[in-house]
Write a structure and sequence with these properties.
Helices cover about 45% and strands about 15% of the residues. The protein has eight helices and six strands, in the order αβααβαβαβααββα. The protein has helices at about 5-10, 25-35, 40-60, 80-100, 115-130, 145-160, 175, 225-235; strands at about 20-25, 65-70, 105-110, 135-145, 190-195, 210-215. Strand 3 (about 105-110), helix 5 and strand 4 form a beta-alpha-beta unit. It starts with a helix and ends in a 9-residue tail after the last helix. Bound molecules: 3-methylbut-3-enyl trihydrogen diphosphate (2 copies) and magnesium ion (MG). One 3-methylbut-3-enyl trihydrogen diphosphate binds near residues 27, 69, 73 and 84. The site of one 3-methylbut-3-enyl trihydrogen diphosphate has 11 residues, from strand 2.
């Protein structure tokens, strides 16, 4: 791989993906390879979050979505879940000021009411503090599942029907987008999944209808700015047809 500057300079700034979404995977395997407990992998992964958010902000990405905890991740052992929640709290406490100074707006995809109190309070603080920011939107998918998001959207829509705000006939794909956690945002142009897995794991099922996928065997704790740049350049060389010719 060329040095960071070399690769970065090959990015066409006029053709940036508006919205990049990353399935941050492989922390556990990274730790296992080093005979360390899984939470060490998550800790190392948090450092990559800091770097990748900074890199995406620097090049001018409008929306960055990071899959941090899925609705299925509650199946993991309690000590791993607690470790992940602690890391989330550490991340927000350490980074909120800088994110805010960079005009980044934090948005959560997922149901935070089910989080333990401390991480929930930190998350609410981060949303509140950055809510008027106009720079990059940082979506953190937390207790997020694509199927749940769709069901939730349907329920919200039904409530609006009941309240007489809208009718059954009004529903179309654009209107329904406004009932998702990503309302008002462009759909992801590029989905990145490190760690060698080639599956969605319940991520953004509605929004990714025409997203481009980029996979890599690199584990998330080894994911550097260069991998992000490589994915963007690869994306820029693809031909998106959206069903046309
Ligand atoms: C991703 O890494 C982080 C979360 C899902 C929270 P994993 O913990 O899934 O790592 P692997 O897939 O076991 O290596
Ligand atoms: C997807 O990774 C969820 C996150 C990255 C937060 P998982 O590790 O949970 O996905 P599976 O189990 O390999 O499908
Ligand atoms: Mg995994």
């Amino acid at each position: 791989m060329k040095n960071s500057k070399g690769i970065k300079s090959n990015i066409n700034i006029d053709k940036l993906p508006k919205h990049i979404a990353i399935i941050m995977d492989g922390n556990g395997r990274w730790a296992k390879k080093r005979s360390l407990p899984r939470n060490f992998g998550h800790q190392e992964g948090m450092k990559r979050v800091i770097e990748i958010v900074e890199a995406a902000h620097q090049i001018g990405i409008g929306y960055l979505t990071l899959y941090a905890f899925s609705t299925e991740n509650w199946k993991r052992p309690a000590n791993e879940i607690n470790g992940l929640m602690k890391i989330l709290v550490i991340y927000i406490r350490a980074e909120l000021e800088r994110l805010h100074n960079n005009n980044i707006k934090i948005n959560i995809l997922g149901d935070i009411s089910e989080l333990p109190e401390t991480p929930r309070n930190e998350v609410v603080k981060a949303i509140e503090k950055t809510k008027y920011n106009t720079g990059m939107v940082l979506n953190i998918a937390l207790n997020y599942g694509g199927r749940n998001e769709i069901i939730r959207g349907i329920k919200e829509y039904l409530k609006d029907i009941e309240m007489g705000k809208i009718s059954v006939e009004d529903l179309n794909t654009d209107i329904f987008s406004n009932y998702l956690y990503t309302r008002g945002q462009p759909d992801p142009d590029l989905i990145i999944r490190p760690s060698g897995e080639q599956r969605l794991s319940n991520f953004l099922l509605y929004q990714i209808a025409y997203s481009e996928f980029w996979y890599s065997d690199v584990l998330w704790p080894d994911f550097k700015e260069n991998h992000l740049y490589e994915a963007i350049i690869d994306f820029q060389n693809r031909s998106r047809r959206f069903g046309g010719i």
